[in-house]
């Protein structure tokens, strides 16, 4: 017993841990976890032991789950009788609550609303202000403030104060962009909050009135009918026989459950006499007492458990964080190097060159120089612009940072119904066991051989009567209804209330022949709705009092009609529908279309049934079987007297006895017209496309053939081929491996071209890690008959093998997998829960997926161009003046102020134009990026930006600085080397004082360097926009790659440079000076040189693709 109990605990924990991989607020996972824990608690209490829900290391989440588990394990509302419930909540069974009492309870206990956890705005703001590069920049702010009023120096240095203020402005600018990105990428309003309906019907003072759901109070008596959302947790006290609830929002199971008025399970969460907030009533009507409301409900408690979960960082967030870490480490390394040199050498040998405050400013200049402060803003703009392009292509990204992840996707798992198909089911074939036909042929026959607006007569031909029986079976064993407002439309255009299968049967039965006179001849007396346990639906009918002859003409003279008193020989008509494999064991005969009489169901006819089923399934049709039987109410009187459940048991016993097969119907959900091209495009982009569905394997495989998911005509492999590959002739090599089988390889699996596989949910549950390795090497896979938990497992298994997984779906049962995927893609027509769990919403056709993948790759490409543009001038060319000043003792050729202006302003304007770049070549022709090996910032980009372009710009900008100094002072570079702040110009050069040199000419020279870098960036941006193509092949003017924003960005950078160097008050405060016109013109040929040098490099790469230059090219 103890061992069995431990096994149950282990199973619960394993399932819980597996579900927790979903990372986030997937409601089905939370519900199932709580339910398992509650069940374990009940079992432990019965056995006198305690249950642990997690290890000691688990933190607050586990404690919260344990708390909720304790609560649901102790509630007993489901076990109380209706009278006890009314007594506990002081509610009148007939009148409900008094209005005065309801208002008092509302004032005392508050409204029926879900109070979401408020974000910690202080924490968010601190993250914006101190996160990323900002944490290092704040050190600069503090240092500049210290150096503004240095100790033992009476005169403040206003320039350092201005620098501190400027860096604070830069920090706030970065924080603003981060906040903007955060709020603009905030997800659509949580579907949890939308689940509370606006109004509901309650009994107050004996009157059924409509009130806002937020004003419900505990004890209210609520009336629910078809289509209503449950406004609070209710204990059902009345329910019609056909009442069913869709709990999929909680359980992830698409099948609705029947309601009950008595406890069906010790577990409160599993009992069917409890209706939970947010679930739907999809059939029937009921009355329930409010037992929990607002945050006390199951939905509210799950909401509290899930809102605290941290979101998994996206791939681009990880890449940007990696870049920040690299830059910060390099910055600290350089600053440390300068500090060590200052302590060990400069301060000892040249004490007047770099006093402490100057050293601190120099160190901060190093920090400011090496950090590309404009990058966060440019990244945000890039993501925002690509997201805007996605929206113009009917793709709504709910998070900007998810956009780039699409470019890495190498596995796409798609739901079938409603995603790959149109979710518009219709009957394509029907069959008696001795006759196959189509709806069009049946309609034609009935039009020819029957009189219009007439009821079936006993003298009609046998084939017509048989066809009428099948038509009635589809119409009567059915809970779908036409919308009254669309009854004037043709049948094919009418709106239907009901599930997709019932809707298809209703449309078929109505189109075969007019049934407006036929249906009123039948009166439903009993029903057993479809449920996940039985997997069939049963409806019981008798003839109507107005026309009792029709049922007798079609189904036999012993059929009862309304108002008649039956004896042991009178029976009612039983109609049952379900899957053939479910109902076949109960069948003993079939209806012959030729004779309209039952025939013995011999093995030969069973084989014929199987043949029809297999043939239709291979064409992608879902096969349903319709049967008829008899129910004798006379024999059910004793069961009726005992209890309602006894009647249902008797109905089930009689109704499934010796069933006669009326016929089979094949229902087709046609594929979306664009899906075949979409799959081909995704595969062309290097992403494998899999189907994950709850449908049967044969049907799913047939659909896969139709839409091109299976590219080969040969039979797909199955689980048996995974277990024993020799079944299909795979050979074992000398190392004991199968030569023909693909293998999982770290970072990038090796796929088998054209290899297809069909697995079922039962296969998935028994697969070992080694078998998963083989499965993950297949190119084409259909996962059939899968549950939400199994869909989640499929996603996690591929992720564990370096798959970047996109999941597409529209149903609530897809939500766990959508949430766990690297990119969840929902269809806009899907459920609220699926849309909430997804990262992208498809507003149009499924063909938007390849477009989204292309734009995701374009994001990555453009971000690399942005960074490649920012680093040469905004980092490399700025750090060298500091290093030359420190180690060679020459004047600083670029001030900290001008460094910041380059990073945050003059570079940012053209950089924004790079965001608008189109793809240079067909990005979908490339394989998906391997996120573990191919990073946003690589050694090749550093080589391009620092060693090549950065060095060229550093040389030209410093050359112009020293050229200006030589021209206007006569002091050459050689004269400045190793002067270390003491040039002693009065004794060496006529008419030049040290003060004039340092306070005017050096400041002007710094502006010359600044202008040179601004203009040389024009050449850099024209070269960086093309990785391989020449500017002659892809210029920014011709339509193919037109980007006139580049010139606008260049102009804006030029105007900023003029503003900084020409405005007098900036000259005074920030120590800048106007630049001679000559030094506005000299950088232009330098910019051309930058462009030409990179053009030469690209030409070498194109001409010699296997050369060392090509291998080092970014």
TrEMBL record:
Cite the SMART domains for this sequence: Cation_ATPase_N (SM00831)
The portions of this protein that span the membrane are 125-146, 161-180, 323-346, 358-386, 866-888, 894-916, 941-965, 1000-1023, 1044-1065, 1077-1096
Where does it mainly reside?
A: membrane
Read off the InterPro entries from this record: ATPase_P-typ_cation-transptr_C (IPR006068), ATPase_P-typ_cation-transptr_N (IPR004014), ATPase_P-typ_cyto_dom_N (IPR023299), ATPase_P-typ_P_site (IPR018303), ATPase_P-typ_TM_dom_sf (IPR023298), ATPase_P-typ_transduc_dom_A_sf (IPR008250), ATPase_P-type_domA (IPR059000), Cation_transp_ATPase_P-type (IPR050510)
Name the PROSITE patterns for this protein.
Answer: ATPASE_E1_E2 (PS00154)
Boundaries of every Cation-transporting P-type ATPase N-terminal domain copy: 76-149
Please state what the protein is called. Answer: Calcium ATPase
Give UniProt keywords alphabetically: ATP-binding, Cell membrane, Membrane, Nucleotide-binding, Translocase, Transmembrane, Transmembrane helix
Membrane protein topology class: Multi-pass membrane protein
Q: Name one GO cellular component term.
A: plasma membrane
GO terms, molecular function? ATP binding; ATP hydrolysis activity; P-type sodium:potassium-exchanging transporter activity
Q: What is any one GO biological process for this UniProt entry?
A: intracellular potassium ion homeostasis
Tell me where in or outside the cell this protein is found.
Cell membrane
Coiled-coil ranges (or none) = none
Keyword presence, Membrane: yes
């Amino acid at each position: 017993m103890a061992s069995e109990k431990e096994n149950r605990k282990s199973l619960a924990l394993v399932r819980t841990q597996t579900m927790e991989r979903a990372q986030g607020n997937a409601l089905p996972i939370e519900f199932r976890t709580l339910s398992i824990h509650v069940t374990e608690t009940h079992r432990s209490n019965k056995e006198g032991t305690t249950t642990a829900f997690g290890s000691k290391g688990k933190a607050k989440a586990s404690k919260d789950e344990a708390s909720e588990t304790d609560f649901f394990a102790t509630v007993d509302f489901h076990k109380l009788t209706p009278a006890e419930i009314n007594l506990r909540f002081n509610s009148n069974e007939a009148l409900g609550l008094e209005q005065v009492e309801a208002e008092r309870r509302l004032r005392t206990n508050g409204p029926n609303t879900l109070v979401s956890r408020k974000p910690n705005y202080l924490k968010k703001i601190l993250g914006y202000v101190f996160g990323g590069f900002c944490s290092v920049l704040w050190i600069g702010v503090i240092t500049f403030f210290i150096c503004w009023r240095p100790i033992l120096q009476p005169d403040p240095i206003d320039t350092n104060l201005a620098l501190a203020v400027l860096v604070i402005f830069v920090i706030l600018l970065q924080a603003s962009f981060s906040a903007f990105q955060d709020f603009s990428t905030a997800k659509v309003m949580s579907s949890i909050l939308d689940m509370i309906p606006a109004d509901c019907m309650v009994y107050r003072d004996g009157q059924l009135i409509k009130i806002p759901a937020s004003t419900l109070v505990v004890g209210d008596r609520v009336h629910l009918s078809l289509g209503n959302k449950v406004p609070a947790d209710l204990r059902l006290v009345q329910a019609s026989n056909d009442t069913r609830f869709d709990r999929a929002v909680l359980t992830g199971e698409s099948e609705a459950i029947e309601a009950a008025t008595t406890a069906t399970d010790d577990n409160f969460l599993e009992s069917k006499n409890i209706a939970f907030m947010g679930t739907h009533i999809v059939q029937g009507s009921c009355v329930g007492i409010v037992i929990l409301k607002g945050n006390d409900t199951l939905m509210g408690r799950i909401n509290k458990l899930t809102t605290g979960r941290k979101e998994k960082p996206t791939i681009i967030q990880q890449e940007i964080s990696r870049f920040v870490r690299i830059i910060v480490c390099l910055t600290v390394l350089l600053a440390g190097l300068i500090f060590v040199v200052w302590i060990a050498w400069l301060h000892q040998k040249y004490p007047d060159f770099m006093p402490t405050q100057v050293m601190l400013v120099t160190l901060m200049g190093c920090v400011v120089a090496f950090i590309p402060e404009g990058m966060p803003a440019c990244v945000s703009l890039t993501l925002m612009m690509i997201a805007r392009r996605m929206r113009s292509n009917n793709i709504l990204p709910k998070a900007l940072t998810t956009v780039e992840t699409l470019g890495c996707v190498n596995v796409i798992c798609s739901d079938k119904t409603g995603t790959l198909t149109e979710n518009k089911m219709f009957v394509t074939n029907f069959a008696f066991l001795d006759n196959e036909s189509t709806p069009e042929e049946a309609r034609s026959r009935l039009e020819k051989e029957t009189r219009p607006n007439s009821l079936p007569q006993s003298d009609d031909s046998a084939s017509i009567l048989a066809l009428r029986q099948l038509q009635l079976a589809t119409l009567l064993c059915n809970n779908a209804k036409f919308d009254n407002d669309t009854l004037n439309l043709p049948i094919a255009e009418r709106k239907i209330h009901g599930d997709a299968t019932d809707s298809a049967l209703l449309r078929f039965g109505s189109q075969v022949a007019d049934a407006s006179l036929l249906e009123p001849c039948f009166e439903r007396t009993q029903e057993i709705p479809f449920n996940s346990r039985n997997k069939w639906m049963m409806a019981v009918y008798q003839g109507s009092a107005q026309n009792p002859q029709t049922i007798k003409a079609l189904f036999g003279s012993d059929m009862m009609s309304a108002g008649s008193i039956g004896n042991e020989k009178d029976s009612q008509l039983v109609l049952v529908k379900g899957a053939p494999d479910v109902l076949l064991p109960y069948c003993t005969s079939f209806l012959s279309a030729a004779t309209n009489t039952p025939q013995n169901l011999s093995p030969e006819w069973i084989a014929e049934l199987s043949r029809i089923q297999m043939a239709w399934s291979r064409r992608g049709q879902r096969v349903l079987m319709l049967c008829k039987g008899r129910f004798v109410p006379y024999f059910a009187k004793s069961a009726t007297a005992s209890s309602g459940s006894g009647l249902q048991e008797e109905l089930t016993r009689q109704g499934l006895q010796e069933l006669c097969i009326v016929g089979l119907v094949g229902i087709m959900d046609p594929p979306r017209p664009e899906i075949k091209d979409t799959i081909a495009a995704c595969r062309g982009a290097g992403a494998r496309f899999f189907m994950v569905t709850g449908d049967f394997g044969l049907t799913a495989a047939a659909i896969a053939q139709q839409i091109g998911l299976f590219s080969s005509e040969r039979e797909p492999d199955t689980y048996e081929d995974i277990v024993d590959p020799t079944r299909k002739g795979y050979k074992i090599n000398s190392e004991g491996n199968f030569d023909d089988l693909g293998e999982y390889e770290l970072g990038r699996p090796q796929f088998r071209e054209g290899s297809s596989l069909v697995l079922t949910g039962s296969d998935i549950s028994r697969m070992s890690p080694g078998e998963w390795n083989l499965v993950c090497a297949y190119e084409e896979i259909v996962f059939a008959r899968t549950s939400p938990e199994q869909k989640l497992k499929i996603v996690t298994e591929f992720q564990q093998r370096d798959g970047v997984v996109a999941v597409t779906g529209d149903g609530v049962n897809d939500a766990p997998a959508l949430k766990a995927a690297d990119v969840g893609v929902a269809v806009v027509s899907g459920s609220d829960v699926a849309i909430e769990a997804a990262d992208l919403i498809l507003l149009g056709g499924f063909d938007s997926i390849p477009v989204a993948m292309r734009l995701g790759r374009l994001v990555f490409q453009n971000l690399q161009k942005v960074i490649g543009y920012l680093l040469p001038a905004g980092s490399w060319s700025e750090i060298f003046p500091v290093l030359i000043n420190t180690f060679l003792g020459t004047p600083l050729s670029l001030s900290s102020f001008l460094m910041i202006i380059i990073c945050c302003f003059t570079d940012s304007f053209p950089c924004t134009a790079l965001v608008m770049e189109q793809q240079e070549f067909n990005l979908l022709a490339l394989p998906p990026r391997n996120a573990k090996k191919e990073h946003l910032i690589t050694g090749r980009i550093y080589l391009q930006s620092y060693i090549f372009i950065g060095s060229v710009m550093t040389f030209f900008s410093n050359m112009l600085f020293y050229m200006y100094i030589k021209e206007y002072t006569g002091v050459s570079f050689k004269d400045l080397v190793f002067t270390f702040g003491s040039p002693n110009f009065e004794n060496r050069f006529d008419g030049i004082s040290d003060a004039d040199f340092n306070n005017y000419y050096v400041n002007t020279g710094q502006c010359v360097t600044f202008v040179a870098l601004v203009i040389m960036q024009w050449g850099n941006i024209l070269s960086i926009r093309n990785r391989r193509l020449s500017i002659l092949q892809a210029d920014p003017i011709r339509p193919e790659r037109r980007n006139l924003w580049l010139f606008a960005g260049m102009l804006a950078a030029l105007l900023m440079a003029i503003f900084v160097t020409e405005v007098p008050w900036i000259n005074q405060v920030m120590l800048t000076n106007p630049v001679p016109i000559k030094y506005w013109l000299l950088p232009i040929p330098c910019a051309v040189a930058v462009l030409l040098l990179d053009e030469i490099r690209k030409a070498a790469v194109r001409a010699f693709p296997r050369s060392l230059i090509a291998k080092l090219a970014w």
